[in-house]
Design a protein that fits this description.
By secondary structure, the protein is of the alpha+beta class. The protein has one domain: uncharacterized conserved protein from methanopyrus kandleri fold like (2-Layer Sandwich), CATH 3.30.1860. 25% of the residues lie in helices and 33% in strands. The chain is built from three helices and six strands, in the order E-E-E-H-H-E-H-E-E. The strands form two sheets. A four-stranded mixed sheet has the order 1-4-6-5. A two-stranded antiparallel sheet has the order 2-3. Strand 2 and strand 3 form a beta hairpin. It is globular.
Length: 84
């Protein structure tokens, strides 16, 4: 199951830093707004996840993402999760 979570205010932005570029497309990231708890519940079931913004810190605290695996682009956290 794919889970995509992004802070609403980041949608439509393009973040660049050095060779890194993250385009936060509305067509990919826009969906229903959910609470942090709902997002974490979905992440527990995810096989693949793409996270941008404050949810990354919540996923770290919930031991779903390791801090050393987080990219920061223009000071915005980005992480991906894959479970095999």
């Amino acid at each position: 199951m794919l889970v995509v979570v992004c802070d609403a205010e980041l949608i439509g932005r393009e973040l660049t830093e050095g060779k890194l570029r993250l385009k936060i497309n509305e067509s990919f990231y826009r969906s229903e707004e959910k609470s942090v708890e709902e997002c974490l519940a979905a992440l527990r079931e995810a096989t693949v996840a793409n996270l941008v913004g404050s949810i990354v810190e919540h996923a770290i605290k919930a031991n779903m993402i390791k801090p050393e695996n987080v990219l920061r682009i223009q000071n915005v956290a980005h992480a991906q999760l894959v479970r095999l």
